[in-house]
């Protein structure tokens, strides 16, 4: 069996293995599917072995696994939690140690990989075998090679690498080690502590920047203007990735990035690497304190509302209104949250906990954000859906 977020139908090929998804339960259904005559009485809900869209699930690798899952005797909460944790920690170790980069040039034995990354050969072999079991590395005749997915997302030389994001996730995992203490006390540590070392800020900003590159082009395409904007303000956008994408689309546009001093230090380097330092100016400031200046045609509040308490969140929107020219535009990107009393999506539920653990804050429902926009004076609030970031909320509001 293996863990998956891919609710694929039927029998499919993955490498050299036959992977059986659950035929008994179809997407969006709690009832029986084509295998109901064999495995489930008419009308009885089947076990939740078929993952809901964008939820963690388990895909059986053979008919025995399939029967075990359909029987309802498999402790799925235990299986999913352990495998999920183990896979995440194993991938993080592989990235930190350089396993994927070592295999980028071609297949190698465990001893060859160990020699490159300076690790113990036997221990390296166990790590490679685990990554093979998780479907990220292929193994044949004593040699290991990368899968297409691993080469695309986890190697430094790939144009689509998410390596920095994995390293950032490692920083977040350190915060989760204190989860029980935070839940007991209700007092999380301050994630954006200015006293944190330079290494933290570098990992943090570059990790966020990698995530941002994943959807920045689509976002810029969705935000359209009657006339090209001339000045923009990116609040809390220290890595500069979203700003860079807007500047590429609008040649006459200049930008100010407002962020904390240590974030700016990393951001300056990233802007130089992009070759756009002549069109971007940095403003070192806590976004919750003081005004942001004025005369902007565009203001971005990307993934910052959830980083502040509720009173400050409303204040950010008011500050954005004051900073904009007449007919200026505010764009908000944040984590989706349905609100109300219904079940939450995987993203909403995780972010509720994540934001509290690192900031003592929450993910705010879209309805609440819209109320703040209306109260501040914004009009014509529209929502855009993102293909590459379906769990995100993108709101566009005009002054």
UniProtKB/TrEMBL annotation:
Q: Which GO terms describe its biological process?
A: methylation
One Pfam family assigned to this protein is: Methyltransf_2
Q: Does this UniProt record's set of keywords contain S-adenosyl-L-methionine?
A: yes
Looking at the record, the residues that make up the O-methyltransferase C-terminal domain are 190-379
- What would be an example GO MF term here? O-methyltransferase activity
Domain spans labelled O-methyltransferase dimerisation? 84-155
| InterPro entries in the cross-refs | COMT-like (IPR016461), COMT_C (IPR001077), COMT_dimerisation (IPR012967), SAM-dependent_MTases_sf (IPR029063), WH-like_DNA-bd_sf (IPR036388), WH_DNA-bd_sf (IPR036390)
Keywords (alphabetical) are: Methyltransferase, S-adenosyl-L-methionine, Transferase
Entries under PANTHER family matching the protein: O-METHYLTRANSFERASE CICE, PUTATIVE (AFU_ORTHOLOGUE AFUA_4G14580)-RELATED
Protein's UniProt name:
Methyltransferase domain-containing protein
